[in-house]
Amino acid sequence: MLIYRSFMKIRNRVFVKDKLEEGVQLKLDQKVAHYLFHVLRCKNGEYISLFNESSEWLSSIDKLSSKEAIISITENIKIAEKKREITLYFSPIKKSQTELVIQKCTEIGVTNFQPILMERTNFSSFNIDRLNLIAIEAIEQSEQMKIPKIYEPIKFDKLLSQDQKNKITLVCSVEEKNNSIRNIIKDNNANSYSLFIGPEGDFSESEMNSIKEKENYLTVSLGDTVLKSETASITAAAILKDCLLNDY
Fold it and tell me: Looking at residue 178, what DSSP letter applies?
């Protein structure tokens, strides 16, 4: 892997759903061909990497035009490693802010996105197809391999009724002044962790009362300033990922 990277410039990483193995030649779809040809201005004979959720491969461009890309897989670069799951529960917000949350939190390492409809949620649509494309682009850019799962919105009550065994949910609230994510992670070991970000205006009183009744839901503070929902999501994801990487 290091030898190839040292003398072959890999122009871009491209996610594919195909099975990848040495010697296989693939025809990529027209959208990818258009991107490689017009945006990256790749040429025949240059190298890119193709990856799925299992492995990544150095691949050569055999034939490229705006309508088709023929790629030969040459050598394995990376095998996917198992990572701890991080789920983000969040109240859907405006389109551009929701897209920002998906993009940046994917880059950080969030593996699941579950939108939650709450009393103060205010949104009109949720385009999962577009958000999936944004997530894939973020995975390509951040040199990860696992594409996060983005689920359809569910109601707050349904979330609380789900089994949370072996999972700790960190509820980020402006009401909390003491507990931090780092302190919770240090004192509680779990198989997986979730972050819960409320809507603009924070959780309602009744929602917070319901949360406090749940054993594995722990409220945390993100500091002494009030953050917008998208900022809170990105900040919380970054703090949690840092804690897990450093074995807090």
Answer: S
Provide the CA 234 distance to its chain's centre, in angstroms: 11
The values of phi and psi at residue 135, to 5°, are -65, -40
- CATH superfamily name and code, 86-245: SPOUT methyltransferase, trefoil knot domain (3.40.1280.10)
| Alpha helices for the chain (secondary structure H) | 2-7, 30-34, 95-108, 128-142, 156-161, 181-187, 205-212, 229-245
Reading the block at residue 10, the tokens are: 């890999």
Contact 62, 71 (CB under 8 A): yes
pLDDT tens digits, 44-62: 999 999 999 999 999 999 9
240 φ, ψ (degrees, to nearest 5)? -65, -45
Is residue 55 classed as helix, strand or coil in its secondary structure?
Answer: strand
- pTM of the predicted structure, to 2 decimals: 0.90
**Domain assignments of the chain as residue spans, ordered by start:** 2-79, 86-245
User: In angstroms, rounded to a whole number, what is the distance separating the alpha carbons of residues 147 and 138?
Assistant: 9
Give the domain 2-79 fold: Ribosomal Protein L25; Chain P (2.40.240)
| Fold match flag (2-79 vs 86-245) | no
